[in-house]
């Protein structure tokens, strides 16, 4: 099992591809540039079987329908944001001048609780990590030692909370109670910027000191 990071779009949102040895893969946050992503997957002869969203801000969902329709695969999102895909005001595309209004189709499956999920060869835990947005979730691959954290935790930073539905106190609670409880060697695959580890952020992230 291995992962790849593909920055997409104007905001360089990190899309992650997690693949198994049999060439099946999961797609996390296909933010935009669907054709570029399809070309990348085709070149590596990968077979996507599902799309998982950490949250539904516009820069994380722009290529959802293009990828879903091309591969005929389902989309998963947390119930707190199940309406965001279809509403430009909720997903933020209405307020970003460089972005067209985004009205995606509804997700195929709604995540309603923290649980361990198994799909084909992939096994991971769903962690509810709200704060950046109400329905933010992280996907923890315990055996492989990494977590897809979306915009909750970044290298030397944390997600912004000044957008509609953001809550700084709740985000800090999510980070400390859900993410920082993971093993320190866990690799953090953030929604923007470089990767990091739980241990590195515990030691040096200025936003986490003194909480």
Structural description of this entry:
The chain is an alpha/beta fold and 211 residues long. The chain has one domain (2-204): Ribonuclease Z/Hydroxyacylglutathione hydrolase-like (Metallo-beta-lactamase, Chain A), CATH 3.60.15. The protein is built from 6 helices and 14 strands. The strands form 3 sheets. The chain has a 6-stranded mixed sheet, covered by helices on one side. A 6-stranded mixed sheet has the order 7-8-9-10-13-14. Strand 7 and strand 8 form a beta hairpin. The longest helix is centred in the last third of the chain and has 12 residues, at 168-179. The relative contact order is 0.14. The model has no long low-confidence stretch (mean pLDDT 96).
Outline the secondary-structure elements:
Layout (H helix, E strand, L loop, with lengths): L1 E7 L4 E7 L4 E5 L5 H10 L3 E6 L5 H4 L2 H8 L3 E4 L9 H4 L17 E3 L3 E5 L2 E7 L8 E5 L4 E5 L2 E2 L2 E2 L9 H12 L7 E4 L5 E2 H7 L7
Parallel strand pairs: 3-4, 4-5, 5-6, 10-13
Antiparallel strand pairs: 1-2, 2-3, 7-8, 8-9, 9-10, 11-12, 13-14
């Amino acid at each position: 099992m291995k992962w790849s990071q593909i920055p997409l779009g104007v905001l360089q949102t990190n899309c992650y591809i997690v693949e198994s040895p049999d060439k099946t893969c999961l797609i996390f946050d296909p933010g935009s540039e669907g054709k570029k992503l399809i070309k990348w997957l085709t070149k590596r002869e990968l077979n996507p079987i599902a799309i998982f969203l950490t949250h539904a801000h516009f820069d994380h969902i722009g290529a959802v329908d293009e990828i879903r329709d091309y591969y005929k695969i389902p989309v998963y999102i947390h119930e707190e944001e199940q309406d965001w895909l279809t509403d430009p005001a909720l997903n933020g595309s209405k307020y970003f001048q460089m972005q067209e209004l985004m009205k995606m189709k509804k997700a195929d499956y709604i995540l309603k609780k923290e649980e361990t999920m198994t799909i084909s060869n992939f096994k991971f835990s769903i962690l509810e990590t709200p704060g950046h947005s109400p329905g933010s979730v992280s996907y923890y691959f315990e055996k492989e030692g990494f977590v897809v954290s979306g915009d909750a935790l970044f290298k030397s930073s944390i997600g912004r909370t000044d957008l509609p539905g953001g809550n700084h106190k709740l985000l800090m609670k999510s980070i400390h109670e859900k993410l920082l409880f993971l093993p320190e060697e866990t690799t953090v695959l953030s929604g923007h910027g470089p990767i990091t580890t739980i241990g590195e952020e515990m030691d040096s992230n200025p936003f986490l000191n003194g909480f």
